Structures are given as C-alpha cells and as structure tokens.
Amino acid sequence: MRPAERARPAGPLDSGETRAMMIAAGVLAIFLYFIKLILLPFVLAGIIAYICTPLLDWAARRTRWPRLLFAVALFLLFFGIAALGLTFAAQRLAVEARSTAVDLQGMLENFIRQAIGDQPIHLFGSSINAHEIVQSVLERMRDWFGQTDHIANVAGYSLAAVMGAFLTMVLLFYFLASGPRVARGLFWMVPPQRRPLVARIWARLDPVLMRYFLGVLAVVVYTTFAAYIGLGVILGIKHAVLLAMLTGILETVPVIGSTTAAIIAGLVALRSATGIITVVEFAIYATVLRLSIDQVVGPIVLGRAAHVHPVLIIFCFLAGGVVLGIPGVILAVPVALMVKSTLATLYGDEAQ
C-alpha cells in the first residue's frame, strides 16, 4: 500500500513532531552533500521510474499480467530509444566536430569581420584586426589543450559520463521493476510513530510532484518540436533534428541546460552564417523560444505545481547547484515543493 493511501486529515502538529521533521531534513541534506558525486544517475533513473510507475501499475491491473513483464518491456523501449539516439548523435557530432575544426579559423574570422568590418579597431593605444583576434584566441586554445592535466581532465570526465550513463540504465531497470518495493522500504525506515505524519505529507505532495514532472516532460516535447521548426524550417540550419533533440533534453536542467543548448545551436549557426543578419535571426529565434516556454507553455502545463515564487526558485537553483551540482539544480523545484507541502502539513494549513 502506498503511503498516500494511508493518509488521514489531521490538525497542526506539536513542536516535537515539527522538530523531528526539521532534524530529519537536516540529516538528509548532509547525507546528500557527501554523496553528491554519485547522485545524478539515481536522480535521473528515479524521476523516470516515478513518472512511469502509475502507467505500469495500471497496465498490470488492467491485464492481470505480472507487473515485471511491463517493466521489462518499458525498459527495453527506453534502452532502444537511448541507443539509437546516442548512435545517431555520436555520428553527427563527430562529423560536425571534424568540419568545424577544419573551418574554425575561417568561420571566426568571417564572423568578426562581419561584426567590426575590414578596418582594424583601436583599443588601448594599439590596433588589431579580425585575423589577429582569431589568431590570439586559437593560440590560447592550443595552449590550453596542450597541457597534460587538462587532457587528463577531459578524458576523466568523458569516462565518468560513459559510466554514469550505464549506471543510469541499470538503476532505471531496478526502479521500474521494483519501484513500489523500494518505496515501501523507504517508508519502513521511518519510525512507526512518525509514519502517519509522513503519509500525510506524501498525500499532499504526490499529485503536485507528479504534475510537475509530467509538465516538464510536456515542456521538453514542445521545446524539441519548436526548436526544430525554428532551426530547421525557418533558419535552415544543418543538423536541425539533432540540435532540436539536444535542446529538448537540456531543457530538463533549468537555466544551465537551456543556456548550454542555445550556445551549442548558436555555434552551429555561426559556422554557416553569411553575415550579421543570420546572427540577429538566431537571436530572435532563441528569444521567442525562451519567452514561449517561460510565459506560455510552462505556466499552462505546470499549473499549480509551478506556484512557487520566482525569487525562491532562483535561490533554490543557485543553492542546489552550489551544494549538489547538476542533481541539485534538477531537484531544486521538487525540493521546494516538498518543503512547501511539509510546512503546510506541519502547520495544519489545508489551503496550501
């Protein structure tokens, strides 16, 4: 039985219960801080499994077939999509990286010349032209990549990314197959006298949290299609499908992800730019996409799940990033919603 099914309405909690919840939250935060380096695969796999759990439960009840059967089928579907996507992306990125490396100097010179003109600019008593600017940038890049420790760092991060992706898939299988049992185990760890309290908090949090994650999924789908229309249909940028998929996936990481996607797409657009007008058109596309997500699609699909003050959201993003890195940024809004639901339950405020 899920904790939400055991929930019973009750009034405000006494100071002892409130103090116990605050201590538990502090202990959990410290624990997560110490394991932050291994947290990301668990967060990603856990969120995906949490979204899929109602679907798996419904299919098992509807057909009276074993739930494990549907879990395995869904995992294989996810695995196949991920494998095809990564294969396609790796091939396209390799081709794009090679062509960009060959053309990098000419591309940058063309862009800077379009921006400042053919005449040199005077800065701090010296003059410099587009060719000299690009040469200086490329020399700094070569010096950076020429250092052994930087190469080792890049190789280490690449290996960690591969291992993290593999671990995420393994965890996703276990969470899909035995998610309810894991949830019951976590609930069992709560002291018996505190379980009614935790059940009440979860009853309030579960629908809001599910609405938020489904809303994020809808935003990702919209972002992918809108980015393809903007990049491929309107701007005619090469590899628009890959860039659109990347933009949609990175939208799951607030602030950082959307900025990274815009930079990557901008660099690809820069490679094929014929003048400053192309850059302006891309800037308009990026602005319209961002405004449509933040002002139209996001509020509609997230609904009350997004009703946390923007100042608090920004603080959560920054604090989560500083304390836990990328997992902290991903969990910023869910944690804010959890705190809100917990405090509303502790204070007996049923209106929140």
Task: Explain what this protein looks like in three dimensions.
A hairpin with a 2-residue loop joins strand 1 (121-123) and strand 2. The protein has a domain at 194-352. It has 352 residues and is an all-alpha fold. Helix 6 runs antiparallel to helix 9. Helix content is 80%, strand content 2%. Mean pLDDT is 78; it is low at 1-11.
- Largest sheet features: 2 strands, antiparallel
Q: Which percent range fits the helix content?
A: over 70%
Spans of at least 5 consecutive residues with low confidence: 1-11
Order of strands, widest sheet: 1-2
Taking Cα atoms only, what radius of gyration do you get, to the nearest Å? 25 Å
In quaternary terms, these chains amount to single chain
**What general form does the structure show?**
elongated
Terminal CA distance reads 25 Å
Reading the helices and strands in chain order gives: HHHEEHHHHHHHHH
Overall average residue pLDDT: 78
User: Which class of secondary structure composition applies to the elements?
Assistant: mainly alpha
- The number of strands is 2
Per DSSP, the total helix count is 12
Beta-strand content estimate: under 5%
